[in-house]
Amino acid sequence: MLGQTLKEQIERFKLSRNETAPIVRDAASQVSRLMTGHVDEFSVERLVAWLARLGADVTIAIKKAQRRGRRGKVRIRVS
User: Fold this and answer.
1) Residue-wise DSSP of the chain
2) Which residue of 28, 60, 63, 71 pairs with 17 in a disulfide if CB–CB is 3.0 to 4.6 A?
């Protein structure tokens, strides 16, 4: 979902790969990899940093466990 949101943000701003690269502080070839669907090559931290550099507000919320033994959930919401 992070990769898709990034791709949409880049397309919404009508940025080329070469225009995007200095904004996200990475190589144009890496932007190209993202835009062609190779999201699995990128860490969550890197994708979040790119989103922030493109002006997106990114919020990560951690809710403390109420009891031991219950598995937590991971949710991503884009608004």
Assistant:
1) -HHHHHHHHHHHTT--HHHHHHHHTS-HHHHHHHHTT-GGGS-HHHHHHHHHHTT-------PPPSSTTPPP-------
2) 28
Quick one: fold of 1-79?
434 Repressor (Amino-terminal Domain) (1.10.260)
pTM of the predicted model as reported, rounded to 2 decimal places: 0.82
Q: What residue spans define the domains of the chain?
A: 1-79
Each residue's pLDDT tens digit, 56-71: 999 888 888 888 888 8
At 1, the amino acid letter reads M
